[in-house]
Specification:
Number of strands: 8
Structural class: alpha/beta
Helix content: 25-40%
Order of helices and strands: EHHEHEEEEHEHEH
Number of helices: 6
Distance between the termini: 12 Å
Strand order of the largest sheet: 4-5-3-2-6-7
Shape: globular
Length: about 180
């Protein structure tokens, strides 16, 4: 009724995706934050927010941390990224990177003004559990900002490439609302 489409996640698909996200090849050949495209994309997305309202950020699916690095240049003081494809948990330049999946079983023992996730929710099997993780780590007046692809046009046109991006969920404006 709401237009949300979710793949049937078989054990084989789940194991394959887990293996991909844990492999050393999980990041793109040119990490997003190292190319002009990645930097421009981050700026465009983050310009949708009034960043002066926030100082602390948790990023779900931070990749190599290019968005967190950008936020640090904007005066953010407490930056944490959760990413399953990191080699290990570590701190770099005041940014805390945690190797893992954002699930309700992961407790960071802190809360954040802003929780963001860019092009990640469509890859997550247990999306309700990830939302619970976000709620558990959000300040009372904090905000959750996420970006997912709108698949409406691809569905309308019958474009099969929409199913080629390791996505488990396919959102439209109706289904995200």
């Amino acid at each position: 009724e709401c237009s949300h489409i979710q793949q049937n996640v078989t054990k084989e698909l789940e194991d394959t995706l887990f293996s991909v996200y844990q492999s050393s090849n999980a990041q793109l050949s040119t990490p997003l934050g190292k190319s002009n495209w990645g930097k421009k994309r981050a700026e465009k997305i983050l310009n949708e927010l009034d960043l002066k309202n926030f100082k602390t950020t948790l990023e779900i699916g931070c990749a190599n941390g290019y968005i967190l690095e950008y936020l640090k240049t904007k005066g953010f003081t407490d930056l944490v990224g959760v990413e399953p494809s990191l080699e290990s948990s570590h701190d770099v330049n005041g940014i805390n990177y945690i190797k893992g999946f954002a699930s309700s079983s992961l407790d960071l023992n802190k809360k954040f003004d802003l929780i963001l996730s860019i092009s990640v929710f469509e890859h997550i099997k247990e999306i309700k559990d990830t939302i619970k993780f976000a709620c558990n780590h959000m300040e009372g007046d904090g905000e959750l900002f996420f970006v997912v692809p709108n698949c409406h046009g691809r569905f309308k046109n019958g474009n099969p490439d929409v199913f080629n991006h390791e996505h488990l969920h396919y959102y439209t404006k109706n289904s995200i609302n």
